[in-house]
Structure formats: structure tokens, C-alpha cells
Specification:
- This protein has two helices and 25 strands.
- By secondary structure, it is mainly beta.
- It has a single domain, classed as Tachylectin-2, Chain A (5 Propeller), CATH 2.115.10.20.
Length: about 375
């Protein structure tokens, strides 16, 4: 599973980030009112992605699109949710979201918790749920190792029209970092923003030749530390093999999360999200959705808008949303994160204050337009 030699990855540089300027084209409207209706009253949800057809659009059952999300009990400090996260199936019917329950039975996955990924329904009707198994099932002390897992199952639709995943699920590990190009993500100590990455597998079928790929949030060597990268893996007759990164953050960011590709206008748009605290130096660029465009999946890429910035939270609410996911029709879904001016990290706040500021539900859906190497946010009724 070593990364074979090949194309040189795009190096996202400080020079490009220094060009970022506040603009209506790349600034999301403030979420008002802050307390949006929750999908689950007693559970936080975050990091959404569609159960997609092979073209990337959400699977539709009845009148509803099928989506997945992470969930955890809405208690204690919100940052602790990552330690108990589970995958969940939800449906979008118009502007309303509906809970369809946990993706897997208790104890079904090989990790101590489940982190983000993607899901696709194949032509034969089977479903592949690609996700991150964090830690090890049954471990007494939480560890932070990350493995890319495929769970193969089918959709079951009940007499009431509600969908669920068949409980007969096979979970198998697909990929491990090679330790050379991609750093290993096995560690016993860590926390949000402080661990190497090998997670967030996003499935993509290349319309040019039908080849199948996974994009993975990864870490590569940088001086005595590590930096963020977007890894590429390709499926072949012998399984999945790692290829060179599509993008590295050239020493300016150590965590490029939830990478995924959308084709539009005959071009390939690579999107990812990252926190302002993940940049070097900290706060040198905003929390946001960033994008890059190329004539082919493997590049060469250039940053959208000259900087990469596609959607930034407004300056007065720098942490209001996160984990943006772009659909082929250019809708953008995210979750409601923290309210506040960003003067302090949420990790510095006590559990009660952080809980009062945390959204833990789905943010208003946005839409973007793409024109070559430019993008802009399009006003929508939901986001006003």
C-alpha cells in the first residue's frame, strides 16, 4: 500500500493565503437566529455527507434525500463528542431533516468510535460506507489511531417508507499510511487539532474513465513536525493502492479535513475544510471551505479565487459553521458550530459555557457558483 511515484502535488503556499481579503463572494451570511431547530433534541450532530449515487448526488427514497452524519449525546463539553462519535443516517425532506437512527449496531465497527467518511450506492444495489475507525474496539483508554474502513451493506426500506441500513454488515480495513510519504496516524495521546491524520475517506468515480478513488485527509513530513495533505487512493484488481498526494499545505496548515471532488464544467474541483487554528501561524487565515481546480483529477491544480478560499465564516462569528460538503449541484451543507467572537478557543472554556455556545445541528444550506477558477456564494432563502 505504498504511495507510488507520480505527479507532483500542488503546494498550497503562504503567498497564496496572504492574498485573502474579505469579500461578499466568499463570506457566509451570519446564522440568525443562532438557535436553529435541532434534528435530535438530545444528540449533537456534525460532519454531514450524502449517501450518494455514483454520480455524487444523494440517494432519494420516497421524497427524501439520504444523508449521514456524526452524532453524540448532547452533554458535557462539546469537544468531548469526538470521543464517543457514532455514524447516523438522516433524511432531508424539503427543508426538514429527519433522524433515521444509528448506522451500525452497537459494537459493530472495529474502532472505539466512528469518524467521518462517505457512502455510495453501487449499480448492483449494494452500499459501501467508507469511514474512519478511531481507536480500537474495547480499549480501556482511548487511543487516536485512524483506519480507513469499508462497511458493505444494503438499504432496507420499511412499510412506513423509512430507510435504514441492513444490519448484516461486513467491516474491512482498506488502507494504511505507508509511513514514508504518508505518516502513520497511530498514537495513544492527542485531541482535536493535535494529531496526525489518516481519515475522512471520500469516494469519487472519475467520469473521464470510470476509475474509482478515495480522497483521504492525511499528514506528510515537514521539518520536525507534520503538515496536512490530501491523499489519493485508487481501486484496482488487487484492491486499493495509495498514490502521491493531490495537495500539500507547504508548511502553512497541518489539518486539511474532509477532502472531496466535484466535477463541473468539465473541470475537477477539489474541496476541503480547515480551522483557523490549524494554520501556521494560528489565525493567519479564516476557518472555511477551500477549493482548487484542475483539468484532471491528478492536476495540475490552482487555487480558486487565487487563494483557495471559497466560504469563510463572517468575521463577527468566525466559528459559526464547519465541515462544508459540496454537492454536484453546488449546494453546500455544513453544521452549526460555535457562537462567539473567537477571542478564546473553545477548548479554554468550561463545559457549561462551551455547551451554551455550541450549535450541534445543521446550518443553513448555502449554494455557490463556479466560473473557471472563480467562485462566489449565491444568496438563498434558507441562509438569509
Amino acid at each position: 500500500m505504498s504511495a507510488a511515484s507520480g505527479a507532483t502535488p500542488f503546494a498550497w503556499s503562504r503567498r497564496q493565503l496572504e492574498r485573502i481579503a474579505s469579500s461578499a463572494a466568499t463570506t457566509a451570511p451570519a446564522v440568525r437566529p443562532w438557535r436553529l431547530p435541532r434534528v435530535l433534541e438530545r444528540e449533537d450532530i456534525w460532519d454531514l455527507w450524502p449517501v450518494q449515487e455514483e454520480d455524487g448526488m444523494p440517494v432519494v427514497v420516497g421524497a427524501g434525500e439520504l444523508w449521514m452524519t456524526l452524532s453524540a449525546p448532547a452533554v458535557g463539553h462539546p469537544e468531548a463528542r469526538h470521543d464517543v462519535a457514532r455514524l447516523r443516517l438522516i433524511a432531508r425532506r424539503g427543508d426538514r431533516w429527519e433522524d433515521l437512527g444509528p448506522a451500525f449496531a452497537d459494537g459493530g465497527s472495529p474502532g472505539s468510535r466512528e469518524w467521518s467518511g462517505s457512502a455510495v450506492r453501487h449499480a448492483d444495489g449494494t452500499l459501501s460506507i467508507y469511514y474512519t475507525a478511531a481507536g480500537r474496539r474495547g480499549e480501556e483508554r482511548l487511543s487516536f489511531g485512524q483506519r480507513v474502513i469499508e462497511a458493505r451493506t444494503r438499504l432496507v426500506v420499511g412499510d412506513d417508507g423509512r430507510a435504514r441500513f441492513d444490519r448484516d454488515v461486513e467491516h474491512r480495513e482498506l488502507l494504511r499510511p505507508d509511513g514514508r510519504v504518508y505518516l502513520g496516524a497511530e498514537t495513544t495521546e492527542g485531541g482535536p487539532g493535535r494529531i496526525k491524520a489518516f481519515r475522512d475517506p471520500a469516494w469519487f468515480r472519475d467520469p473521464a474513465d470510470g476509475s474509482r478513488h478515495l480522497l483521504v485527509a492525511a499528514s506528510v513530513p515537514w521539518r520536525e513536525r507534520f503538515m496536512g495533505a490530501v491523499a489519493l487512493a485508487t481501486e484496482g484488481d488487487g484492491g486499493w493502492s495509495l498514490r502521491p498526494p493531490l495537495l500539500v499545505a507547504d508548511g502553512v496548515n497541518h489539518e486539511l479535513e474532509r477532502p472531496h471532488v466535484v466535477t463541473h464544467g468539465g473541470r475537477y474541483h477539489l474541496f476541503l475544510c480547515t480551522h483557523r487554528s490549524s494554520f501556521h501561524p494560528c489565525d493567519s487565515a479564516p476557518t472555511g471551505l477551500y477549493g482548487f481546480v484542475a483539468p484532471a483529477l491528478t492536476g495540475p491544480y490552482e487555487p480558486l479565487n487565487g487563494t483557495g478560499l471559497v466560504i469563510a465564516n463572517p468575521a463577527e462569528q468566525p466559528d459559526q459553521a464547519y465541515a462544508w460538503w459540496v454537492l454536484p449541484d453546488l449546494r453546500v451543507v455544513s453544521f452549526q458550530d460555535y457562537r462567539g467572537s473567537g477571542e478564546r478557543s473553545m477548548l479554554e472554556l468550561g463545559a457549561e459555557e462551551a455547551r451554551a455556545r455550541f450549535g450541534g445541528t445543521i446550518a443553513p444550506v448555502l449554494r455557490i457558483e463556479l466560473d473557471g477558477a472563480r467562485s462566489r456564494i449565491v444568496p438563498t432563502a434558507e441562509a438569509r
